[in-house]
Design brief:
By secondary structure, the protein is an alpha/beta fold. It is 31% helix and 17% strand. The protein has two domains: 187 residues, 3-Layer(aba) Sandwich (Rossmann fold), CATH 3.40.50.620; 99 residues, Rossmann fold. The strands form five sheets. Strands 1-2-3 form a three-stranded parallel sheet, with helices on one face. It has a three-stranded antiparallel sheet with strand order 4-5-8. Helix 6 crosses helix 7 and helix 8 packs parallel to helix 9. It is elongated. The structure holds glutamic acid (GLU).
């Protein structure tokens, strides 16, 4: 039975094939949706065209299928959604929520950074462009208030956007729409009720909640699953040369993914095919068993 009260999603960026860290995020969001009798959608976040790798979107979909992570409906592709993002930006312009910004990356390089290493925008163009300069990007003006939210794994959290992020970009200087805007517009368009994703995005959530409020869109329920790191403590990613998920030994990879998510499968399932492991895991899924801290895992696959 599908329940319309739960619609989840996995939103990979097709910058390369899925690796073990992305399997953990996909698996957690799939399990949470299936355990709730909900739908699970896939959205291809190919917004940052220069970073996308040709063929990666197809590879990711084939990997999801091979690992038994079946999705519902059509895959939404962000590179086809510019009109929707432009309409949202227009709405933000009309309500005076955004301003053009002329700052270059090098001009901002000396600004303070937050715990995530992101520049805290110092407000340079907030009250008007410097004389003779043209706007390059669009930023949302953020208020000096704490945004509170509940994460199902991390509990009650809050962030002051003005102090820890500053006015943030919704349309980039290179003309591309920013991830924050696209994610909010698409989560609403797809009717997403529950977001389960990697903890590297935890502190993007207040920005997204603020945009949802400004655009009159609903706020989904959030859960952020632990990041998987290599032995050096770096997030598994293309940049840190994480290997692609193996085509064989899928059961071994899934069993390890379940273990790092706090759901070690019983020994008799250790060498199962994906479907057996996924059936067991959907029946036993308890999001409160998922750990909060980053996890070093050597998939050794
Ligand atoms: N595309 C993002 C990523 O691959 C995920 C975005 C999201 O889940 O909101 O890291």
């Amino acid at each position: 039975m599908r329940s319309p009260s739960y619609i989840g999603r996995f939103a990979p960026s097709p910058t390369g094939p899925l690796h073990f860290g992305s399997l953990v995020a996909a698996l957690a969001s799939w399990l949470d949706a299936r355990a709730a009798g909900g739908q699970w959608l896939v959205r291809m976040e190919d917004l940052d065209r220069p970073r996308c790798e040709p063929g990666a979107a197809g590879t990711i979909l084939r990997q999801l299928e091979a690992y038994g992570l079946a999705w519902d409906g059509e895959v939404l592709v962000q590179s086809q959604r510019d009109a929707a993002y432009a309409a949202a930006l227009d709405a933000l312009k009309e309500s005076g929520a955004v301003f053009p910004c002329a700052c270059t990356r090098s001009q901002l390089a000396a600004a303070p950074r937050n715990d995530e290493g992101e520049i805290i925008y110092p407000g340079t163009c907030r009250n008007g462009l410097p004389a003779g300069q043209a706007g390059r990007a669009w930023r949302v003006r953020v208020p000096d208030v704490n945004i509170h939210f509940h994460d199902r794994i991390h509990g009650e959290l809050q962030q002051n956007l003005a102090g820890e992020v500053g006015d943030f970009v919704v349309k980039r200087a290179d003309g591309l729409f920013a991830y924050q805007l696209a994610a909010v517009v698409d989560d609403a368009f797809q009717g997403i009720t529950h977001v389960v994703r990697g903890a590297d995005l935890l502190w993007n959530t207040p920005r997204q909640i603020y945009l949802q409020n400004r655009l009159g869109l609903p706020t989904p329920v959030y859960a952020h699953v632990p990041l998987i790191t290599n032995a050096a403590g770096q997030k598994l990613s293309k940049q840190t040369l994480a290997p692609a998920l193996p085509d064989d030994r899928r059961g071994t990879a899934l069993a390890l993914a379940l273990t790092v998510l706090g759901h070690p499968p019983p020994a008799e399932l250790a060498d199962s095919e994906p479907d057996g492991l996924l059936a067991w895991a959907s029946a036993h899924w308890q999001i409160e068993n998922v750990p909060t801290q980053p996890i070093f895992a050597n998939p050794g696959l």
